[in-house]
Amino acid sequence: xxxxxxxxxxxxxxxxxxxxxxxxxxxxxxxxxxxxxxxxxxxxxxxxxxxxxxxxxxxxxxxxxxxxxxxxxxxxxxxxxxxxxxxxxxxxxxxxxxxxxxxxxxxxxxxxxxxxxxxxxxxxxxxxxxxxxxxxxxxxxxxxxxxxxxxxxxxxxxxxxxxxxxxxxxxxxxxxxxxxxxxxxxxxxxxxxxxxxxxxxxxxxxxxxxxxxxxxxxxxxxxxxxxxxxxxxxxxxxxxxxxxxxxxxxxxxxxxxxxxxxxxxxxxxxxxxxxxxxxxxxxxxxxxxxxxxxxxxxxxxxxxxxxxxxxxxxxxxxxxxxxxxxxxxxxxxxxxxxxxxxxxxxxxxxxxxxxxxxxxxxxxxxxxxxxxxxxxxxxxxxxxxxxxxxxxxxxxxxxxxxxxxxxxxxxxxxxxxxxxxxxxxxxxxxxxxxxxxxxxxxxxxxxxxxxxxxxxxxxxxxxxxxxxxxxxxxxxxxxxxxxxxxxxxxxxxxxxxxxxxxxxxxxxxxxxxxxxxxxxxxxxxxxxxxxxxxxxxxxxxxxxxxxxxxxxxxxxxxxxxxxxxxxxxxxxxxxxxxxxxxxxxxxxxxxxx
Length: 593
Ligand code: TNX
Description:
Layout: E1 13-18, E2 21-26, E3 49-52, E4 58-59, E5 65-69, H1 75-93, E6 99-100, E7 109-114, E8 136-140, E9 144-149, H2 152-165, E10 184-185, E11 188-192, E12 198-204, H3 212-224, E13 229-233, E14 235-236, E15 239-240, H4 249-252, H5 275-287, E16 291-295, H6 303-308, H7 339-356, E17 361-363, H8 375-389, E18 393-397, E19 411-414, H9 418-421, H10 432-442, E20 446-449, H11 452-455, H12 477-481, E21 504-511, H13 534-542, H14 545-554, H15 562-579
Parallel strand pairs: 5-6, 5-7, 7-9, 12-13, 12-21, 13-16, 17-18, 18-19, 19-20, 20-21
Antiparallel strand pairs: 1-2, 3-11, 4-10, 8-9, 8-11, 14-15
């Protein structure tokens, strides 16, 4: 019985790079020496090792079965992954694939096998700090498919790879005619493990409200590409989106705006998640082995809260509601006199948010907070202490690194513009962003890498992109793809390093929603009619760039090349079309007609 390798045994596996072609050879076998793209396998993110075996393809038909092999304690999870697989393969084919025990010698069986490994301990709702839990091995031949992993998330990630081995129509949301060659998957042997344990996707539901169904759609997008954290930016100047029972004003008042949408617009729609709706999102993410990371941003980006609660302002009077486009707005009043009120607010809010999120993280924000002396520290101290008191691991934007008492194990999200910051690494230590990152590292924090000129997918692709911003850069597909987290905080001459790969917990891709309407830079919205539906904005900005960032997070640098990625995307894009995703046909890829 094969169990997934926890770490690549160097003696067994060699990855040879021939020009732009990454070719994996497994010693002792006689593999076809093909890169994943030219082998006709449109696999994204590219797996650690792929061997194309010469034999016949597996044929999925109405008699195919899904077999579950698992120790009793993991049976519910393995059963659940089996159901996910049955749904993925059954929707477009119309096949009702039964789940059952393995049958020796069965033909047409897809076997999901969980093989525990004492070295890999997966804990439901645990920290995302072990790449081993996502590892899997997948073999396909003309009789059987066998997917093995040590942990349920690994099985789920392997299912995403398996989906990509079947024809693109398999991703359609309605029953399709059988493709000419049948519903087949080629004979392959794949062994895969991610580079980074934390692979996040952030959605800004504050500037624009994403209804539950749209959040689920975003989860589908992210989980298909093996991302495992859903960071929800739940609060900002323009809106407060999560219900807090003990402070109903936060949603009664604070949710009535979106950016560009004043109170009273929106035909009476409700722009926040009730406790039940929020639980539905958490459960849906959990089904895809994604951990929700809720963000309550502060002390800046809090005008919606300040408009709801007089206790957060120095004169006790709520501020007017805000639906403009600016950042760096006034922060909550964390003066010595008002600190008790701020603490009370944080205690109530964070207790409620901690209770609604089984995951281990609380993101406390901390960006763009123009602060009178001492206020930022006072706020940060209170928020860190309260979050820690609820047993949560703190995450903050890199400015949060300035917190005097940063709790142990904290993660700091780096969102600098690499193009501008890399050249000053190692110079006089005066750059505020780098100073904050250094301060965080000095306190033992690790980094989530979200350089704004690479991962901020609200940035326009090019001058023709209708939506979005360009303050960090315009981000082409190649720019979204072509960076290495390990050297992102190293000077261009390679001589000075602020942080290396060992300091990095992972990578996160972000979709802010500030300017989600056409002609976004030329004018502010004159009416809510100018906005496009959130799904349309998200699909267009995320595809094809989200798969690019997902590959940065999952695949080893040595296995990646842009030309190869582009070739694979040509094969992947019909899946987006089949799934009804409104993607952007960027010009630098020769998309199939
Ligand atoms: C910067 S990133 C922000 C957000 C904006 C975004 C727009 C960060 C921590 N702050 O408030 O939405 O730019 O690109």
